[in-house]
Amino acid sequence: MPLDWEKARSLVHEAGRAAAPPPARVPLAGADGRTLAEPLVTLTDLPAFPTSSIDGWAVRGPGPWRPVGRVLAGSVASPLTGDGTCVEIATGAMVPDGADALVRVENSVVDDGGLVSGEPKPGPEWRRTGEEAARGEELLPAGTPVDPAVLGLAASCGYDELAVRPAVRAALLVFGDELLTSGPPGGGRVRDALGPLVPAWLRRCGAEVGTVVGPVEDTLDAHVSALRAGLAAADVVCTTGGTMHGPVDHLHPALAAIGAEYVVNTVAVRPGFPMLVARVPGADGRTRFVAGLPGNPQSAVIALASLVAPLLAGLAGRELPALSSVELAAPIPGRGTYTHLALAATDHRGHARPVPHVGSAMLRGLALASGFAVIRPGTSGEPGDRVPFLPLPLLPGER
Ligand SMILES: Nc1nc2c(c(=O)[nH]1)N[C@H]1C(S)=C(S)[C@@H](COP(=O)(O)OP(=O)(O)OC[C@H]3O[C@@H](n4cnc5c(N)ncnc54)[C@H](O)[C@@H]3O)O[C@H]1N2
Ligand code: MOO
């Protein structure tokens, strides 16, 4: 029985999470795009010392004030001990003990005798120690994706290295003797569209893509050898084609031959129902996965978005990618007891409109869409309905 689509997403995510590789400590520069394996706890107060927000004067007592020195960013300020004294201070410099106000340079006057007068602003002009965070405070939980902001925050609170989940290693095996790897299709043969497409989308899901092989010869032996070789170097081996039971569909027998166990075998979703994920014990004791994507190109993309993205998220120690929600701008039919994933383009108001050319063998509609409107089993979508939306893994600026 094909599994419910939402159930299948969470099952593969859990399977990935259970098999996530152990954390590694890496220098900050190598942590970009990984996932925090431990909470980010600040190693100091932030800021670590009272810090001037302005260029001007740190003053003590009532003015005018006699300058007794200067404190620049990067140095330790000596205390201001006498009322009626001040030091020149730069933005970012430590505010001296004893100072009770800061006066901006543009709000001050220095008289001929060198005395400074001026009006401090009513609000404090410096940042108090620990005002952003207190030493030992948790700033971000484990499982947070490491992005540029996280790298900057980690550096600012004292980290040289971060404990992160290693990158998930993926491989691709393309099945199908009918596939051409260059030139125009014809004479019964089609161009391999998935060899170029799948690795690019795996990378957008955060995976490192190693081996890409194809077409693998349409024999059981060739499939078994290619799977074994792929699994030796990857956490997840994606395959395309051969998920059904046609005369040269060898995926299921090959999975049996390598001792794989299905996590999900067919999903109640249209298009793409023959998709699967199976787990295989690795030689090192760690679980590896095979993700079988159907051969029809749009169906393969649906399998990537439905199963492979959650699996990679689980292996990376991340949450199940959340579905967003859109308002339909046009009707979308349901698919009976199956979930219908309908390619749609969204506008700036979050309205989704189905795109044309969306047959499971087509890619034209995919290239116009930003994701799939999710029409749940037993429902259909009417204009104005809010429905869940499964975004394609696109980078900013890509549609
Ligand atoms: N008797 C049945 N036959 C089929 C059924 C069914 O329910 N009963 N379901 C159809 C559906 S739905 C799908 S999806 C496909 C899945 O088939 P496979 O995963 O076994 O894929 P193939 O048979 O190898 O290929 C299907 C189709 O896609 C083309 N293809 C394959 N790989 C690529 C590629 N890399 N680039 C471009 N196009 C590719 C291939 O030439 C075929 O046209 O099964 C249906 N059959
Ligand atoms: O389900 Mo197939 O994947 O419709 O093309």
Textual characterization of the structure:
The chain has 399 residues and is α/β, with parallel strands linked by helices. It has 4 domains: 5-21 and 167-315, MoaB/Mog-like domain (Molybdenum Cofactor Biosythetic Enzyme, Chain A); 24-45 and 131-165, Molybdopterin biosynthesis moea protein, domain 2, CATH 3.90.105.10; 51-127, Beta Complex (Molybdopterin biosynthesis moeA protein, domain 3); 324-391, MoeA, C-terminal, domain IV (Beta-clip), CATH 2.40.340. Helix content is 19%, strand content 30%. The protein has 6 helices and 27 strands. It has helices at 5-18, 148-156, 194-204, 220-233, 251-257, 297-315; strands at 24-27, 35-36, 40-41, 51-52, 56-60, 66-71, 85-89, 101-104, 108-110, 116-118, 126-127, 138-140, 161-165, 169-175, 179-180, 190-191, 208-216, 236-240, 261-265, 269-270, 276-281, 287-293, 324-328, 339-346, 351-354, 371-375, 386-391. Strands 17-14-18-22-21-19 form a 6-stranded mixed sheet, with helices on both faces. The radius of gyration is 30 Å and the shape is elongated. It binds ligand LQZAQKY5 and molybdate ion. The site of molybdate ion has 8 residues, from loops. Ligand LQZAQKY5 binds next to α6. It is an enzyme of class 2 (transferase). One of its GO terms (cellular component) is cytosol. Residues 171-314 form the MoaB/Mog domain.
